[in-house]
Structure formats: C-alpha cells, structure tokens
Design brief:
Among the domains are: about 140 residues, Rossmann fold; about 90 residues, Luciferase, domain 3 (Roll); about 130 residues, ANL, C-terminal domain (GMP Synthetase, Chain A, domain 3), CATH 3.30.300. Helices cover about 35% and strands about 20% of the residues. The chain is built from 20 helices and 27 strands. The chain has a five-stranded parallel sheet, sandwiched between helices. Strands 12-13-14-15-16 form a five-stranded mixed sheet. A four-stranded mixed sheet has the order 2-1-11-10, sandwiched between helices. Helix 9 links the parallel strand 10 and strand 11. The relative contact order is 0.08.
C-alpha cells in the first residue's frame, strides 16, 4: 500500500489490468466477475458523467445500496470527480433518509441494490437527481447503461491526503445520526491493520456487512483498495452460505449474531454432546473439524474476527475447538474502526485486546475509554459543538464506552456510559455483560436488560423462530420454559444481588431496523425498545414469575 486509495487503484489498473478483482452474483446462477481494468473503466465513465454535471467542487454525493461491485465503482468515481461520498444504510426509514440527505446537502443520490425500496423512497426529495446502478429497484433515475455511454475520464486525478473523502452517518443508538467526516488520510491510516494481519493479493474476502458502516469499509473496501485482494459479494440472505462457499474466504470478519447463528446451525445437525465426543477422539478429530468448517464455507480462513458488539467467551472457545481462532476487535465510526484487536496466539477472553499500531488508550472520568488513533475523524459535519465535545484537549476521542485496562494493555469493555441505569434501591446496573450471558442460550435472538427506577432489573428477550414453533406444542413449550428458567437461575447465581433479574419476558415479535428497534448494524435502540414496552412493565413485575411470555 502506498499513497491514497486512488493512487493505489491507478497502479493496479496499470500493473494488473486483467486480474480478477470483484465477483458479483447477478441472480440465479449468473455471476459476473470484474477485472481491475473493468472496474476502473466503469469508474472513469461515471467520473466523467459526474464532471459533466458541473457540480461545485467537493459536492456531497449520496450512495444508498446493499453491498455490490457497483458500490465500490461509485465510490471510486465520486472521488475521481473530486467529490465526497455520503453512504446511507440500506435499511433506513424514510424520515432518517430525509434527515441525512438534508443535513449533508447531497446534490445527487446513487441508488443500488435494495430491498423494500418503495417504503424508503418517500425519504428522497422529489427534485433530487438519481443514478441507478445495476440491480437497483425499478424506479425513476438515470440508468447506469446511460452513464456508461460517456467517454471515460482519461486523467488520473490525485486527491490531497487531507481532502474530505466521505461523511459516514452514525447508526443512531443514542439519538439522531451524526455525520462523521473522514479524509483520505484518516481512512488510509487503517492500513496498519492490513500490515498486522499480513494481508496479500492472494487473500479473499466476502463483503456482506453494510459498506455504509466503518467496520466494512475499513476491513474490506480500504483493504482491497490498498492491497488488491479478491472481494466476493452476497446475493441475498437465502444464498449466503452458497455465496460464502463460492468465496472460500481466507479473511472473514463478522458480528456476534452471525457467529452465534453459525454455531446454532452446526449444533442443530450435530448436537453438542455428539460433537464433543467426536472431537475427543484423536483419530477422527481432524476430519470432524474440517467437515464442520467446510460446511460453513470457512475451511480456508486463516484470520477470523468478530466486532461491533461483545461476543461471549464460550463462543470463542467453541470455535477454537474447531481450529478457528476467533479474534475480537473494537472500534467506532469516529476512529474508522481502527482501535483494538486481540492478537493471534495472545487472546485473553473477555477483552478486545491491545491497541493497533499507532493507537493510544487511557481511561478518563468514570472509566470512560479514551482513544487517540491515526484514523480519528476530523469532526462531525456542520456540528462544531458536538465535535468539541467529542475530543479531549489533547486529541483523544471520548468513546462513550466504559472499560478496564489490564497490566498487559488488554482492554475490557464493561458497558456504555449512557447505558448504566439506577434501580429504585439506588444501585447502578450495567446491562451489556448480563445480556451477553443471556444470549448464550440458542433460543434467544435478541436481549435487552432494563429496569431503571424499579426494585430489580428485568430482561426482554426475542425468541428465535425455532423457539416460537416450540410454543405451539404444549410439551415442547413446557420444556422450553424450563430450559430458560434454569438458564436464568444460573446467570442470577453469578450476579450481585442488585443485578439479579426479576423476570425474563419472552417476546415473539422481532426487533429489526425496519421497525426502529435496532440500528442498521443490529445494535439495540434502547430508548425505542423501552418506550414500546413501557406500559407493560408494571404488569410484568406483578407476575412474580422467573420466565414469562408477553
């Protein structure tokens, strides 16, 4: 890696024009592969089309799409034309779409592959020009085929490292999304991660976590733009395993929810007792490990990691038994997800490891984690007051997370500063560690611990689809409730008295980004969830049952 993203891409265009780079499912069995020359050719035509519009220099261009090859191409074209990309999550509500577009002052929106676009479309101003990339929903706008009729840009413009490259709007766990500004320099500083892992052109990655989020842009997009490894995209949730097996990634980064789903899928076919027995037999152990990982499409993975939220230690241990060392990382949009990660062979379960190269850490008031990273944002767009509040006087970001740093420099996340709540007994409760323990049960899809101003905390839990089916049969229902009661009793036994849960309330209604209860990265929107169920809380306390159905 050298220079900024565009400089690297121009080099690949010259030195590796015919090498396969991006692999895009087109529906059914059709798959389209792109070489470096093809990617840059489409990007140059898009850049020339943008240039012909005569927009003011450094205009903000919105980009709303699920991950596709054209997401990369559009981003490159926007930069080549001298503008700034403003990614939008592909699952936003119309109100949030409008708020982001208005706040950013976007001049144009690039629309790509989306599900349920008709519900989102009212958020796009009628007068805003649109460009439709392949796989976009049927709607009005300039089709990509028309854009590609323009002669390609022949120049290879280089952007200064301190130029604003992108504005990434936060997922809004604590309120209104804020526009996090990153320059080409702050994005490229994440190359330290590439160097730590030893990423090469021979590596492969599957791109499926939202590219509108810093996590995926750091690990996949910036890494691919710097090194040139192959990137495969996903067609849909239904084809995920097939797409994963097509890629056979050597680098695979995910979120706890997916690692838990993978585990549950394996244990459904191969119960834990049987798997443990097979793994204890030396003569078949290697074969079992290989077949399980092959079934998941992860048999070629040499580097696996989890981020975005804490992952239970038991899950890390389970994957380690299969021969997959699952590392855990930590970061935020404000530092382009370049902050901490556990190192191979040095995992300390329960921590997110030590800082990346060039990153400094310390604890502030209330054990708040403070981080100074070469990827630190230059600030929030149009929000000087919020920017001032984000930084300490010496340039550390106030993360809003609480933590503990051990003697080896490993960071343990203990909760969010704003997530702590006080019971009516005057005791503070940190919900996240309790939620992580509850989520170890495979029948619980999402969990939130609450109970501000109540004598004891309680938990809300969304049941898995399998669990909901069990509720339909009396015997299976009784067995499920008994299982969960034992699970809760075991957890309560490990908690301090003021943390013990009064009841576990089981819900059969999903929490999703679409209904406003999860962020686009599947984090809890605590205030929205509390508001939704607030009228029922007193009644749940009155049940005096350890596990109750809502």
């Amino acid at each position: 890696m050298h220079g900024t993203q565009l400089e690297n891409l121009y080099d690949f265009e010259k030195t590796r024009p015919d090498a396969r780079w991006l692999v895009q499912p087109m529906g059914g069995d059709l798959v389209k592969s792109f070489t470096f020359a093809e990617v840059m050719g489409e990007a140059r035509r898009f850049a020339a089309w943008l240039e012909a519009l005569g927009l003011p220099p450094k205009s903000n261009i919105a980009l709303m799409s699920k991950n596709t090859a054209w997401w990369f191409i559009a981003d490159i074209g926007i930069w080549m034309a001298g503008h700034v990309s403003v990614p939008l999550y592909p699952t936003l509500t119309p109100d949030t779409i409008r708020q982001v577009l208005d706040h950013s002052g976007a001049r144009l929106i690039v629309i790509g592959k989306l599900d349920g676009f008709s519900a989102m479309e009212p958020g796009i101003p009628e007068a805003m020009p649109r460009v439709l990339t392949p796989l976009a929903p049927a709607t009005r706008g300039v089709p990509w085929s028309e854009v590609q009729q323009r002669p390609p840009m022949t120049a290879s413009p280089v952007r200064p490292a301190d130029d604003l490259a992108t504005i990434m709007y936060t997922s809004g766990t604590t309120g209104v999304p804020k526009g996090v500004m990153h320059t080409f320099a702050t994005m490229c500083a994440s190359r330290g991660l590439v160097e730590e892992i030893g990423v090469t052109r021979a590596d492969r990655m599957l791109s499926y976590l939202p590219l509108s989020h810093a996590f995926e842009r750091t690990v996949v997009e910036t890494g691919a733009f710097g090194v040139g490894f192959e990137v495969f995209f996903v067609e849909s949730l239904d084809t995920f395993v097939r797409d994963l097996k097509r890629c056979r990634p050597t680098l695979f980064v995910s979120v706890p929810r997916l690692w838990l789903k993978f585990q549950a899928g394996v244990l459904e076919k191969l119960p834990a007792k049987k798997l443990n027995r097979l793994l204890s037999i030396p003569i078949v152990r290697s074969l079992v490990k290989k077949r399980v990982l092959e079934g998941l499409g992860l048999d070629q993975v040499r580097y696996a990691a989890s981020g975005s939220a804490p992952i239970p230690g038991d899950v890390i241990a389970w994957y380690r038994r299969l021969g997959l060392e699952l590392l855990e990382g930590y970061g935020m949009t404000e530092n382009f997800s370049y902050s901490h990660v556990t190192k191979p062979g040095q995992i300390k379960v329960g921590t997110v490891g030590t800082p990346h190269a060039g990153v400094e850490q310390r604890l502030g008031d209330g054990s708040e984690i403070l981080v100074k990273s070469p990827c630190n944002t230059i600030g929030y767009y149009k929000e000087p007051q919020l920017t001032a509040e984000l930084f300490t006087a010496d340039g550390f970001i106030r993360t809003g997370d609480q933590g503990h740093i051990d003697e080896q420099g490993n960071l343990r996340i203990t909760g969010r500063v704003k997530e702590l709540f006080k019971t009516s007994k005057g005791k503070y409760v940190a919900p996240t560690p309790i939620e992580n323990q509850l989520l170890l049960h495979p029948e619980l899809e999402n969990v939130m611990v609450a109970g501000a101003n109540q004598p004891q905390p309680f938990a809300l839990a969304v049941l898995s689809l399998k669990a909901r089916n069990r509720l339909m049969v009396a015997e299976a229902k009784a067995e499920l409730l008994h299982e969960l009661e034992r699970h809760l009793e075991a957890i309560n036994a490990r908690l301090d008295p003021h943390e013990r849960l009064e009841t576990l309330v089981l819900l059969t209604e999903d929490w999703t980004p679409e209904n406003g209860l999860l962020t686009p990265t599947l984090k809890l929107k605590r205030s929205a969830i509390e508001k939704k169920y607030d009228a029922h809380v007193e009644g749940w306390y009155g049940l005096k049952r350890l596990v109750a159905l809502a």
